[in-house]
Amino acid sequence: MKLVNNQDSIPLPNNLLMKISYRKGRLRQHLIFGVIWSILGIIAVIYQAANVFIYGYLMAGLGYMALFLFEQNKQYLTISGGTIIKNTLPPKKIFLNDITKITKANGYFILRSKGANMKIDMDLIEYQSLVKLKDVFSKLNVEIES
């Protein structure tokens, strides 16, 4: 593809709302770890409540459960209103019109603009969502380097 002036409008509607999902295995893994650590924590509290370090099991379980719920609800990326948002804490945002270059290397897409860069891990994305993401990138009129 040829690099085009990024001030040109891209052929994506502004009211587009697209969620790029995490792989189901990743979400399932967080849920399983959360349940296991929580059960271990509950058992440990019942039998050794005096030991302060036992509460770390419960904290780990609750942390994994919170991570599961956050990733399940937010998903990995959100594309809406001409922006792409990486749903992390804190969220990272880049305007689609500002993207000057996309590099594909080592399982990552690296989006570059004048003000910010965003690294997208392709291994975390569900296959169908990855196809949608590549379709959005192909409509940006930006060179994709491998």
Report what the structure shows.
With 146 residues, the protein is of the alpha+beta class. It has two domains: 24-72; 83-145, Signal recognition particle alu RNA binding heterodimer, srp9/1 (2-Layer Sandwich), CATH 3.30.720. Helix content is 38%, strand content 25%. The protein has helices at residues 24-47, 55-74, 127-138, and strands at 17-20, 77-80, 83-86, 92-95, 99-105, 108-113, 117-121, 144-145. The strands form two sheets. It has a four-stranded antiparallel β-sheet with strand order 1-2-3-4, with helices on one face. Strands 7-6-5-8 form a four-stranded mixed β-sheet, with no helix packed on it. A hairpin with a 2-residue loop joins strand 5 and strand 6 (108-113). Residues 1-10 have low confidence and may be disordered. The chain crosses the membrane at residues 27-47, 53-70. It comes from Echinicola rosea. Keywords: Membrane, Transmembrane, Transmembrane helix.
Question: How would you summarize the topology of this molecule?
Answer:
Blueprint: E1 17-20, H1 24-47, H2 55-74, E2 77-80, E3 83-86, E4 92-95, E5 99-105, E6 108-113, E7 117-121, H3 127-138, E8 144-145
Parallel strand pairs: 5-8
Antiparallel strand pairs: 1-2, 2-3, 3-4, 5-6, 6-7
Keywords: Membrane, Transmembrane, Transmembrane helix
Transmembrane segments: 27-47, 53-70
Protein name: PH domain-containing protein
Proportion of strand residues = 15-25%
Largest sheet: 4 strands, antiparallel
Task: Report the oligomer.
Answer: single chain
State the end-to-end distance. 12 Å
Number of strands: 8
The sequence of SSEs as H and E is EHHEEEEEEHE
CATH architecture call of the largest domain: 2-Layer Sandwich
User: Unreliable segments (pLDDT under 50, ≥5 consecutive)?
Assistant: 1-10
In the CATH scheme, the class of the largest domain would be Alpha Beta
**Helical content class:** 25-40%
In CATH, the topology of the largest domain is named: Signal recognition particle alu RNA binding heterodimer, srp9/1
Number of domains: 2
Strand order of the largest sheet: 1-2-3-4
Keywords: Membrane, Transmembrane, Transmembrane helix
Protein name: PH domain-containing protein
